[in-house]
Amino acid sequence: GAALQRFLGPLLCLGALRLPAGSGAAARGLDVASYRERVRAMFYHAYEHYLESAFPYDELRPLTCDGQDTWGSFSLTLIDALDTLLILGNVSEFQRVVNVLQEGVDFDIDVNASVFETNIRVVGGLLSAHLLSRKAGVEVEAGWPCSGPLLRMAEEAARKLLPAFQTPTGMPYGTVNLLHGVNPGETPVTCTAGIGTFIVEFATLSHLTGDPVFEDVARKALKALWKNRSDIGLVGNHIDVITAKWVAQDAGIGAGVDSYFEYLVKGAILLQDKELMSMFLDYNKAIKNYTKFDDWYLWVQMYKGTVSMPVFQSLEAYWPGLQSLIGDVDNAMRTFLNYYTVWKQFGGLPEFYNIPQGYTVDKREGYPLRPELIESAMYLYRATRDPTLLELGRDAVESIEKISKVDCGFATIKDLRDHRLDNRMESFFLAETIKYLYLLFDPDNFIHNDGSDFDVVATAYGECVLYAGGYIFNTEAHPIDPAALHCCRKRKEEQWEVEDLMREFYSQKKTKKFTLKRAPDSGEGENAKDPEDASSEKAGEKRNSKKSSHSLLSCPSQSFNSKLAVLGQVFLDNT
């Protein structure tokens, strides 16, 4: 470590010297509104060419003006771009696309799909669009947000992924066939991010549908990774999901690991879950101790902590944004400024950058229009209002337009040194890169709501507040409204119903005895007093329950000495 510090020291100081002088003054003159409109124009240039030349394929091929299926066969770019349409204010196109997707997307297909990519792009995109539907003027059905066509599609897609989680460790396979489940010869080796990037979408799905299976498998996978961390507190890059043996033992914050850390933080915020946050904070300490050198993060051996690659990967640029979410803004800004120097050197972030040499790594010179540095700028700008962050946005707009814009959209940059292009426009360009750029330049967007404005929605389970802000972006930049997770609490609703029945029953002077039985899928102690449920019992007494779950309760006549077992609580007859 010390030797590497001496080796990197002078080079890192040189990097620091390249920081812009007086950048604040320049950015103060930056015309935010005009850049916002340029980002909007970029979106439509790409989106309209996708519709004209590539739909219903997954992605646009911008150099040949045609389309290709990449991650399945879902019209992926359309799903990924849907919530961006609303963020840009286009409600009519949002409504049209919702109808197109309902009619045209089918998950009963014989396709091998990435479990990770299908979750973040398809399940995440559909959930986000489902929750934003009312804001977009879609006529939602009576049970919304606890039901709706996009929610049913998201649930159907997620169910297709569940077979991947049926492993001895609970960690999922990386690939699943949407028709047949896991292929017999499937490799058991999955990357860490491919195991730990489900809690945001799957917990949202469980809370909205009332089916706990999604959140349960996501939590089990997260905990399996935690259990298999090294003695010095690090996780590697790839693990065997059958044996729990680490196959790639490089530890860092970038490719193969990145969104695992991101989802511990975002899952903790979304679910108000202290355990997930404490896991992240423990990892954060180990990451600082072993991988951080002068505000860069390197790759180290997960058991020994020795440096394995002194490389910065463009995917790591999400980290300053994540640091800002836990309030560590000073460290976040210092790392961000390091990454920004690389951007200015090349007009984009190469996939790999050798830190000591200050140059690209062979065969990793490309920039596929990734969002991560812009994402961090958006978060940090919300936290600091530092004009340097707007400058990165400006540089990104200028660079992408100059290098990557072609007649049919925007093309992946194959090599940042000579600006050769590749015939691909990834769906994340419209889902993430454009969205974060637009939100950086649009301080009044509804996504930035501070809680001063909101909708109150009546559901079968009481009223709930939506659109108040605090959105959690999944790792494909699909915003989830955390308040929506409290709209569909079926378990509580059953509890109020039971309490109403009990009061009614005892007020009739005990003429008959009943046993109220929970549906057989939950054991005696399963729900033993969730603190939130306990606090809601008193509130529940004041509510009029809408009795919609009779199927879960049966009331046969019983002998006098029977017990009432409800939601894991036992009531004796003499209570």
UniProtKB/TrEMBL annotation:
Residues 1-26 form the signal peptide. Its EC number is 3.2.1.-. Gene3D superfamilies: 1.50.10.10. The keyword Endoplasmic reticulum applies. GO terms for molecular function: calcium ion binding; mannosyl-oligosaccharide 1,2-alpha-mannosidase activity. Its cofactor is Ca(2+). The active site is at residues 117, 258, 351, 372. It holds the Pfam family Glyco_hydro_47. It is found in: Endoplasmic reticulum. Keywords: Calcium, Endoplasmic reticulum, Glycoprotein, Glycosidase, Hydrolase, Metal-binding, Signal, Unfolded protein response. GO terms for biological process: carbohydrate metabolic process; endoplasmic reticulum mannose trimming; positive regulation of retrograde protein transport, ER to cytosol; response to unfolded protein. Residues 516-556 are annotated as: Disordered. The keyword Glycoprotein applies. Residues 518-543 have a biased composition (Basic and acidic residues). One of its GO terms (cellular component) is membrane. Its main location: endoplasmic reticulum. Ca(2+) binds at residue 475. Involved in the endoplasmic reticulum-associated degradation (ERAD) pathway that targets misfolded glycoproteins for degradation in an N-glycan-dependent manner. May initiate ERAD by promoting the first mannose trimming step of ERAD substrates, from Man9GlcNAc2 to Man8GlcNAc2. Seems to recognize and bind to exposed hydrophobic regions in target proteins. Belongs to the glycosyl hydrolase 47 family. This is alpha-1,2-Mannosidase. It comes from Dicaeum eximium. The lineage of its organism: Eukaryota, Metazoa, Chordata, Craniata, Vertebrata. The gene is Edem2.
